[in-house]
Amino acid sequence: MPLHPVHAPAGRETPLPISGTHLVNGHAMRPPWPDGLEEIVLGLGCFWGAERLFWELPGVHVTAVGYAGGVTPNPTYEETCSGRTGHAEVVRVVFDPRVVDLETLLRVFWEAHDPTQGNRQGNDIGPQYRSIILTTGDAQQEAAEQSRAAYGEALSRAGKGPVTTEIEPLEAFYYAEEYHQQYLAKHPDGYCGLKGTGVNCPIG
């Protein structure tokens, strides 16, 4: 959960510099987006593998990794990894709902990680690795909450613990440093910590 600002790094007014162009598909990583597209911001552990998971989906226009859900403006990776900014490592997913619906994205999100672990994801420990969905509208918020309830029931039937995933409206998305953007396209053998529960999500 976000920490009190007194305990958080001050951050900076200027965003961290990025190329602004997606290495894999060449699309712009900054808004404005083409007409008809939507965005949602998802945190499911280390953002390197999470970003690749979504850029590979048909209907996803562009992705970017960053920090959200905390209090420090334009934090660095080191500041976020201190656990003191309150942010999670997240992926901004800009998608065409005429090609890929929100339920599909949410199903991929739920099945790609273990949303019962609280402030960790496997061996990655700290609040920056928590499970979180940051929505950009009431319909997204409602759909995300419904999907959490549905997946929670499926996990419970499988003997898993309760879902710890936070769902809240997106307040700010801060781009991570350039070297993190599309990291696994630059380093195909790089670390990917994604590990699901093996339980299917009954939505979409």
Quick recap of the structure?
The chain has five helices and eight strands, in the order E-H-E-H-E-H-E-E-E-H-E-E-H. By secondary structure, the protein is of the alpha+beta class.
How far apart, in Å, are the first and last alpha carbons? 29 Å
Strand order of the largest sheet: 7-6-1-3-2-8
Structural class computed from helices and strand pairing: alpha+beta
Given the structure, what is the number of helices?
5
Shape: globular
State the low-pLDDT regions, or none. none
Largest sheet: 6 strands, mixed
What is the alpha-carbon Rg in Å? 16 Å
How much of the residues is beta strand, in percent?
15-25%
Give the % helix. 10-25%
Structural topology:
Blueprint: E1 38-44, H1 47-55, E2 60-68, H2 77-81, E3 88-95, H3 102-112, E4 120-121, E5 124-125, E6 131-135, H4 138-157, E7 166-169, E8 173-175, H5 183-186
Parallel strand pairs: 6-7
Antiparallel strand pairs: 1-3, 1-6, 2-3, 2-8, 4-5
How is this structure best described in words?
There is one protein chain. The protein is an alpha+beta fold and 204 residues long. It is 24% helix and 20% strand. It contains five helices and eight strands; from the N terminus they run βαβαβαβββαββα. The chain has helices at residues 47-55, 77-81, 102-112, 138-157, 183-186; strands spanning 38-44, 60-68, 88-95, 120-121, 124-125, 131-135, 166-169, 173-175. The strands form two sheets. The chain has a six-stranded mixed β-sheet, covered by helices on one side. A two-stranded antiparallel ribbon has the order 4-5. The longest helix has 20 residues, at 138-157. The chain is globular, with a radius of gyration of 16 Å.
